[in-house]
Write a structure and sequence with these properties.
The protein is α/β, with parallel strands linked by helices. The protein has two domains: 9-45; 52-153, Nucleotidyltransferase, domain 5, CATH 3.30.420. It has helices at 16-47, 98-111, 127-132, 142-153, and strands spanning 54-61, 68-78, 81-91, 120-123, 137-140. The protein has a five-stranded mixed beta sheet with strand order 3-2-1-4-5.
């Protein structure tokens, strides 16, 4: 065993309490797929009622694994309140070309029935992202712009 057994005898895993704990976690894991299925169906029913989305997408790298990931989030108004739902975070093994980003985001939007002709995309200012959504309405993410401004403002200049 790993971390929780450090400094403890290996017989720790043979105890009845440990076996009961493992059984409990196994019983929970058997229900996760069903919970995901139910919640996704609920979300799809909610998204079906929406006329237009603000779609935020970003590429990032996981600190520990180094995997490249893409996240797609949908924002919309429901009953006079802004809603924000993460539709998916997926590992993206393909190169980050505009076409690959476009295809990946389109597949996620189709999976969640959130593809609309009038969606507005919020993206960072990377050239591949701008190219991926050039046929759509898009705006640059203010947080990315502020981050760039601050980064360059505090950058040490070499004399």
């Amino acid at each position: 065993m790993l971390c929780f057994c450090i400094g403890r005898p290996f017989t720790f895993v043979e105890g009845e309490a440990f076996r009961e704990l493992v059984k409990y976690f196994i019983s929970i894991s058997r229900h996760v797929d069903r919970v995901v299925e139910v919640e996704k169906a609920r979300l799809l029913a909610e998204l079906d009622k929406v006329h237009q989305f603000g779609i935020t997408t970003d590429l990032w790298s996981h600190d520990s694994t180094g995997h490249s990931c893409i996240t797609v989030t949908a924002q919309y108004i429901s009953e006079w309140e802004v809603q924000s739902k993460i539709l998916a975070t997926r590992v993206m093994v393909e190169s980050h070309t505009a076409e690959n980003v476009k295809v990946t985001v389109k597949a996620i939007l189709e999976e969640f029935r959130a593809e609309r002709a009038n969606n507005v995309f919020v993206i960072d200012n990377a050239s591949n992202m701008r190219a991926a959504f050039r046929e759509n309405t898009w705006i640059g993410c203010a947080c990315h712009y502020v981050n760039l401004v601050l980064f360059h403002s505090f950058e040490r200049k070499q004399c």
